[in-house]
Batch of 2 targets.
Target 1
Amino acid sequence: MKSASMTLDRDYIVGRIDPRIYGSFIEHLGRAVYGGIYEPGHPEADEQGFRRDVLKLVRALGVPVVRYPGGNFVSGFNWEDSVGPADRRPRRLDLAWFTTETNAVGLHEFYDWAKKADTEVMYAVNLGTRGPENARDIVEYANHPGGSKFSDMRIANGSKDPLGIKLWCLGNEMDGPWQMGHKTACEYGRIANESAKMMKWVDPTIECVACGSSAYDMPTFGDWEYQMLSECYDNIDYVSLHRYYGNPTNDTPGFLARSMDLDGFIKSVVSICDAVKGKKHSKKTLNLSFDEWNVWYHSSEQDKEIWKREKWGPALPLLEDIYNFEDALLAGSMLITFLRNADRVKIACLAQLVNVIAPIMTRNGGGCWAQTIYWPFMHASKYGRGTALMALVNTPVYDCADYEGVPLIDATATLGDDGGVTVFCVNRDMTEDFRLDIDLRAFGDLKFKEHILLHHDDTKAVNTEANPMNVSPVAGPGGKVEAGRAQVSVPALSWNVLRFEKI
Ligand code: AHR
C-alpha cells in the first residue's frame, strides 16, 4: 500500500463556496427537453407533462441553477417564439443541431419546471443572430413588474409576477466559427457591453456572464479574453469558460490527468481578467462562470450517423454519451478543481443534465436512471458546501503523455458551517491502494462519520436501465481519528468522500 498525507488548517482557506458551482445546463438539444424533462403521456408525467421520475433525480443532485435554453441553440433562437399560447408557437429549424424546434416547451414552462426541480433559471440571450435590443426586451418581459409592452405581454401570458431571473448569459461561445453569428473578440465585446448596459438599465439587480473562449485550445484563446474584456469589463460580472474532455486513445492515466488542464485554464483566465483589471485601474475583480464542463466524446460517431439518417427530425437522440467508471473519476477531479479555485469560480454548470451528455438518462416511455458521473456530482453538491480549504497534499506523482508530476492522490477539503470537515479524494493509481493520513488537529474534536466510495474493477463499466446501480456508491473501508489525525484507506482507482463531524 502506498501512502500520502493531507494537512488542513481552519485559517488556510481558498474562500467561501458559491453554491452555484453545482449548477447544470439544459439546452433545446436532442432529448434534453423533449423526452427528457418533458414527456406528456408518460406514466410519470405530471399535469404539465414533466416527468416526475426525472424531477426526483434532479432534486437529489441539489442543483441551485440551470443554464437555459442553450448552448449553440440560443444563437439562432427568438425568445418570442417560446411564449404565448403553445398551439400558436412556430416550429423552427434549429441550425445549431439540424433539428426542428417545436417550442412546445418555452420560457414559462421551463420556469415552472425549475420551481419543481428546486432550482433557478440562468437564462442565455441570443447575441448571435440578434443583439442588445432583443436582450433588453427579454429582461423587460421576464423581470419588469408591468406597465410596458413586454412586461404586459408576460402578464397576458399568465405570469402576473415577474419571473425575477437574476443570472443572464450574454450569448454562447461567440468565439466559435460553428456559432450562428460568430464574431471577433472586439465585435462581441462591444455587443456584450451594450447588451449588459441596457439589460441592467431595465433591471439593475441582474448579473451578466460574458462569453470567454469555448475551449482552452481555441486558436484565439487569450487574445479573445483580453480584447473582449477590454470592451465590456465594467458592465459584466463573470466571464464564461467551457471545457470537455475525452479518452479516444484509451489512455486512462492520461485521461485522469485532464483536470490539470482544467486548473491551468482557470488560472490563465484569472490572470487575463486581472490584467484587464490592472489596465483599467478598476476596483472590480471579475469572477468566473465555468458554465459548460464534462466528458464528451462517446457519442460523436453515433451523432454523425443520426444526422445522415434524419436531419431536421425533432428531438433526435443526439450527444447521448454513456458514461463509464473512469469518466466519473475525471468528473470527481474536475469538481475538486472547482473547489480549489472557489475564490474565483463562482458558477459552474455540468453540461448537461438530462440525456444530452448528462448524469441522468431516460428512455422514451420507459425508465430513468443515474449515469456514473451522477454520483461524484451529487456528493460534491451535497457535502461540498461552506468554505473551501487550501489542502496541503503530499503525494507520489506520475508522468503521462501531456503532463509531468500528476498527483496520484487528487484531493481537497471543505469546512461545513456545522464545523464538520469533508475530504474529496480521487486515487488515480491504476493498481495500488493508498493510506491517506489527514491532519485535522486545527479543527478541535472531530470524529469519523462516513466514507463514501465509488469504485469498479472495470474502468469501462456503465449504468443502464436494466442495471442502473452497476457503478454506484458504497460504504468505504473508512478509518480512525486519533488526537486529530485521521488515517483512511483509499482503494486504487476510486472516488472517495471522507466525512468528519464534530464530537
Ligand atoms: O453542450 C453542448 C454544446 O457544447 C453547447 O451547445 C455548446 O455551447 C458547446 O459547444
Target 2
Amino acid sequence: MALLTKAIKGTQDVLPTDSVRWQYVERTLMNTAALYSFKEMRTPVFEHTELFNRSVGDTTDVVQKEMYTFNDNGGRSISLRPEGTAGAVRAFLEHGLHNEAMPQKISYITSCYRYEKPQAGRLREFHQFGVECFGAASPSADAEVISLAAAAFDALGVKGLTLEINSIGCPECRAKYQQALREYFEAHASELCDTCRDRLGRNPMRILDCKSPVCHAIAAEAPVVLDYICDDCRAHFDGVKAHLDAIGIEYKVNPTIVRGLDYYTRTVFEFVSTYIGAQATVCGGGRYDGLVAQMGGPQVPALGFAIGLERLLMVMQAQGCRFPGTEPCTVYIAPMGERAALTAAKLCAQLRAEGFTAETDIVGRGLKAQMKYADKIGAQYTVVLGDNELDSGRAMLKCMATGEQSEITLPDGLITAIYDRKIDAALGELTDSIEQSSFDSDK
Ligand code: HAM
C-alpha cells in the first residue's frame, strides 16, 4: 500500500494551502521577465537523450549519473529534461527563431528531473524559472540578464543574496586551462573517484564539480580559470563588471565558479543565499556562445539563467517574505431547505459571473454546521436563506469580521451590496497606502 500512498523519494506535492505561494512567485517572476521583453516558451518534458549528451555534456554529473533515461516503445532513447536550456535551444533552431529579429528573449517555468541524493533544497523533481537570450554577444547583455534575476528577487522581497560572477573563457583559453588542470589532477590521480579518473583524460574541468568529498577537497586547491583567460575574454569580463557597476548591482568575483554543465563560455554567475543550508545556490547561469552552432545552427551567441523555485521558496519562507494570499470566499449563502438551496445555487452562479467567489452548501449540512464552515473558509459575508427570506424577497447580509448586518433585497440587492462593499474596501486601502507613502516621505 505504501507504493500507493507515498510519493516517490525526492518529489514533492504542492497542496492547496501552498499553491497560492507558488502562483504568486511564478506570476511575479514571469511579470518581471516580461518587463525585459522576455516571452514564454514551453517545451516537452522529455527529449532525445542525445540532445542532453551533446549540450549539457556527456562528462557532466548531470548526464553521467543523474538523468532519467529510458527506451520508449519505438526503441528511442528518451530522457526527462534535467534542465531547461537544451530544450530551449533545440526549439529555437527547430522553429527557425534565428531568422527572426535578434535578440530573441524567451522565458520558461519547467519541471526538471535529476537523480540526485535528496536533501533540503535538492530534489529529484524540481522546478526552474529560466530565461534565455539569443543573439547578443556584448557585455551589456550579460549585465541585463543578471539585472533581470536581481529585479525578480527584489520584486519578491528576497534579501541578502550574494551575486558571484566569474569568466571561464572561450574554447581557446579553455584549452590552456584544461592542460594546467590535467597536470594538477594527474598528480592526485590515485585519490580521485573512478568517474573523475575517466574525466582526467576527457574533460578535467568536470572534476571541479564532482560531489565526492575527496575529489572536492583536491579540486579546492586546483588552478583557477580566471588566471588563464585570453585578452578578449578578459575585456568582455571587464565590460560585464563595468555594466553591473553602472546599473548599481553588487557582485563578488569568485574565480572558483565553473558551473556543472559543459556549454558555458565566458561569463558564469550564481546567486547564493546563506538562509537555506548546503544547497545555497538559488540561481545559476551564464553565457553559452558556442552551443547553438554546436547543435547544428548558425553561430549565435546566447546566455541565460535558471532559478530553482523550491530553493527560492525556502529562502522566502526563512526570511518571512510576504506572500499575498488569494481572496477568501466573498459570500457564503446558507440555505435552509430544498427551495432555498435552489435559490442559493442561482445566487452563487450570479455572483461568480460577476467575478466574486461564492459558495453554498453542497453536502447537506444544517445551519449551525454551515456557519461553522463559512467561518473556517474565511467567508467575508454570509446570507441565510429560509422560507421567510424567499417569501419576503429580503435577507440579511452579515459581515463576518464585524458582525454587522444589513438588509438586502433579493436577488439583485445582494450583488449591488457586495459591489458597494468591495469599492469601499478598495478606496480604504488606497487612502491607507497614500497616507503611508506621505508618512514615509516625511520621515
Ligand atoms: P543549474 O545550476 O544546473 O543550471 O540549475 C539552476 C538552479 O536550479 C540551481 O541554482 C538550483 O537553484 C536549481 N536546482 C538544480 N538542481 C536542483 C535539484 N536537484 N533540486 C532543487 N533545485 C535544483 C541550469 O539548469 C542551467 N540550465 C541554467 C541556465 C539557463 N544557464 C543558462 N541558461
